[in-house]
Amino acid sequence: MIVAHTPDADDAFMFYAMISGKIKTRLKIEHLIEDIETLNRMAFEGKLDVTALSVHAYAYLEDKYRILSAGASVGDGYGPMVVAKRDIELEGKRIAIPGKYTTATLLLKLALDEFEAVEMRFDKIIDAVKRGEVDAGLLIHEGQITYEMHNLVKVLDLWEFWYGRTGLPLPLGVNVIRRDIPEEDQKEFLRVMKESIKYALENVDEAVDYAMKYSRGMSRDLVKKFATMYVNEYTYEMPESVVKAMERMFDMAEKKGIVKKPKLDIL
């Protein structure tokens, strides 16, 4: 079973126990690590058995994958943001985005009526803004807590945009499993996923030690802060509020003509 996830502290944190063999299972699991937009695009080919996936991308993949009720990345009080060298009006501007199918990009399309999207890897965006290659940049992952170190300012907080309109938590990423995998194997992987998350939440420092492999220059305190921001009670077991939030997000996207609302199938 090929299980794909990102080279980010939060994914490393939640998958630590699984990767290190602390959770026993009959499944033969092989881990593949790529950035989220690469995984989104690989999922379109249907070759990944389990993968981290942007909520946005699921709209195009409901025929191939089911959503797992464990492993979601959910913002609650924080989320993607747009930064620039100074406070500017964003409509019509060149904005670096971390991928066409990321949920952050979907949120930006919901928040703005017109902008020129410039796609690039998420970890190249801050430098592109600093060099003036784009007017602003849409940040995901650790950029949300490190941008001020680069003398950039927050122009648009997409958590505030989202919460102001919905009052719901912000679902950004999910883990999905291929539909054609036998049901008993799907359920067994879900068990392993939940136990791995539970282990990380109960052994935070140990899991953070492993996540430091993907620190990208962040201090241990920042890695711990970032990992525990996005691996939380929502991650262990998806509550109804997150399901409702995904429904609402796709309703808004369909109403604006961005994407057709998918049927949510959650294991």
Description:
The active site is at 141 (proton acceptor). Its EC number is 4.1.99.29. By secondary structure, this protein is an alpha/beta fold. It has 2 domains: 2-74 and 170-255, 3-Layer(aba) Sandwich (D-Maltodextrin-Binding Protein, domain 2); 81-166, D-Maltodextrin-Binding Protein, domain 2. 42% of the residues lie in helices and 18% in strands. The chain is built from 12 helices and 11 strands. It has helices spanning 9-19, 36-44, 55-58, 103-111, 125-131, 143-146, 158-166, 183-202, 204-211, 220-230, 233-236, 240-255; strands at residues 2-5, 30-33, 50-54, 65-67, 73-75, 81-84, 94-97, 116-119, 136-139, 153-157, 170-178. Strands 1, 2, 3, 4, 5 and 11 form a 6-stranded mixed beta sheet that branches. It has a 5-stranded mixed beta sheet with strand order 8-7-9-6-10, with helices on both faces. α4 (103-111) links the parallel β7 and β8 (116-119). α1 (9-19) packs across α8, α8 (183-202) packs across α9 and α9 packs across α10 (220-230). It is globular, with a radius of gyration of 18 Å. The two termini are 17 Å apart.
